[in-house]
Q: What sequence folds into this?
């Protein structure tokens, strides 16, 4: 009896060990990701260069109007439903801006939607520079880079053999970059004089009852040596989205760009989408917890020489990959 009991115990231990190994093997199985097209940094770079050639995209200027027409035409050429949200807003110095949010929709009938955004206007002054302070900046990175990446994503998903199953809405916000200079004292501190387009859209969406699963804002995403930290409002409103995107970036080999370290909150377009439209939106933005914005911010150094295709590739491929995993 003792020998039989001993043999039975040994058999049970071996059976448990085999089952344990199988369970362990299942846990170690690699995740199978949906196949994602290649993001072209060359194409995104060309889109940025085209915007800069129109001149500064300051509201109420010829460069602004020409860029608006070109952006609409590009989205339409990708076969997307395009509409504009035209409105007027006051600037901090009581100017009346004629502004246009540009909305392009891919797969408009899909119920599950993701919102991608950037701003397409540029700043009318170089108030952080030491010369030509009152002249407008090129805005190659601050405005141009986010738009360039989104245009390339729009081109890819419209021409790819395998397309995302979800709906995707591209919104280019206007009037983002005209906040008052630091040296100007504004009496009405309750008014935020930048992010005018997102403030308007978030309270007046282009479709009644519009909603999206989540959103991603791209701002300052093309500079040489850029590092993207986990911005405060993004972590507050969309921590799970941040973790997912940063994890995908690491999986793709871009952990040198996407840093798993928190940065302070900044008021950017995503803040109003979160607060007023109630859509969780994160911000991929170059803003360091150590020194804030880059040296080029609101200066004439924000030109095409600043733009690095490696940075565009890291951001564009990560966002595109994220879309294809939904």
A:
């Amino acid at each position: 009896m003792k020998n039989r009991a001993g043999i039975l115990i040994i058999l049970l231990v071996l059976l448990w060990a085999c089952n344990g190994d199988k369970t362990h093997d299942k846990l170690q199985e690699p995740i199978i990701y949906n196949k994602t097209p290649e993001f072209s940094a060359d194409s995104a770079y060309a889109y940025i260069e085209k915007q800069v050639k129109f001149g500064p995209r300051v509201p109420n200027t010829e460069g602004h109007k020409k860029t608006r027409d070109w952006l609409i035409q590009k989205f339409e050429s990708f076969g997307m439903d395009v509409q504009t949200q035209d409105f007027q807003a006051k600037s901090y110095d009581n100017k009346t801006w004629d502004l246009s949010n540009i909305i392009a929709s891919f797969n408009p009938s899909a119920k599950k939607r993701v919102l991608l955004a950037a701003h397409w206007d540029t700043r009318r002054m170089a108030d952080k520079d030491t010369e030509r302070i009152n002249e407008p900046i090129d805005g190659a990175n601050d405005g141009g880079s986010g738009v360039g990446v989104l245009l390339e994503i729009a081109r890819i998903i419209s021409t790819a053999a395998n397309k995302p199953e979800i709906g995707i809405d591209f919104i280019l916000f206007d009037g983002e970059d005209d906040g008052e200079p630091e040296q100007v004292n504004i009496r009405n501190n309750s008014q935020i004089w930048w992010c005018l387009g997102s403030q308007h859209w978030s309270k007046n969406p282009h479709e009644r009852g519009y909603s999206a699963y989540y959103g991603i804002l791209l701002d300052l995403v093309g500079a040489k040596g850029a590092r993207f930290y986990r911005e405060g409002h993004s972590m507050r409103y969309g921590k799970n989205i941040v973790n997912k995107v940063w994890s995908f970036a690491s999986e793709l080999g871009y952990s040198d760009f996407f840093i798993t370290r928190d940065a302070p909150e900044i008021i950017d377009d995503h803040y109003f989408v979160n607060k007023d439209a109630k859509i969780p939106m994160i911000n991929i933005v170059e803003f360091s917890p150590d020194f804030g914005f880059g040296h080029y911010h609101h200066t004439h150094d924000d030109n095409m020489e600043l733009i690095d295709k490696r940075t565009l590739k890291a951001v564009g491929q990560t966002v595109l990959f994220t879309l294809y995993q939904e």
